[in-house]
Amino acid sequence: MGFVDAFWQPGYAMKSFFKIIAFLILPFCYSYVNKNVPLKSLFAVKRKGMIHAVLMAAGVYVFILACYFTIGNFFDFSQVTGALNKNVGVNKENFVFIAIYISFVNSLLEEFFFRGFVFMNLRKLASRKFAYLVSSLAFAIYHVAMMADWFSIGLFLLLLAALIAAGFLFNRLNEKQGNIYTSWFVHMFANFSINTVGFILFGIL
User: Fold this and answer.
1) Among 192, 191, 194, 186, which Cα is nearest to 52's?
2) Residue 10: helix, strand or coil by DSSP?
3) What is the pTM (predicted TM-score) of this model?
C-alpha cells in the first residue's frame, strides 16, 4: 500500500480496492491457513468499554479541532488540497463521499489490520514491546507514503510523531478491551475532525 500511495498513485476508488484486499482479505486468508492467528475474537463486543470509548472519541475530536484553530496558522496547509486532487483525484465535488468512507470504512480497515491482525496476534507470537513497536511504526510509515508531499517538513515530522503516538495509544486501548472497537471509535472521530478541517480547506464549510 505504501508503493500504491507513493509511486503508482491510482484514483481513490482503485486505491481503496487494493487496500481492502491488503488490509482485510489477505489477513483473513492467512488466518484461515494459520490457526495460530485467530481474528474472530477481535470483533467480540464488550459493553463495559463502549461508553469510555465514545467519550474518549469525542474528546479526540474536540482536541484535534482545537489544535487546528489554535496553532494551524503557524503551518502552511495550502498544499493539501492540491496534493489530494493531483495524487488520488480527491476534490471539492467528491470530498463529502470520500470523507464518509474514510471515517467509517477506512478507519475500520486500518484498525483491523494494524491493531487487530498485527498487534493483537504479534504480542502472543513475539514480545509485547515488539508488537507495540512494529504496529505503531508500520501505522506511521504507511501514512508517510500517503502524506509525503502534503506538508512542510516541520508539520510533516510533527504529524509523523503524532501517528506513532496514536499507534501506541490505539494498541493500549485494544489490549485492555481485547477487541478493536475502542480504537476504531477513537480513530473514527479523529478522522471526523480531520475531515472537518478538509471541509474548511476545500471551502465547503
Assistant:
1) 186
2) coil
3) 0.87
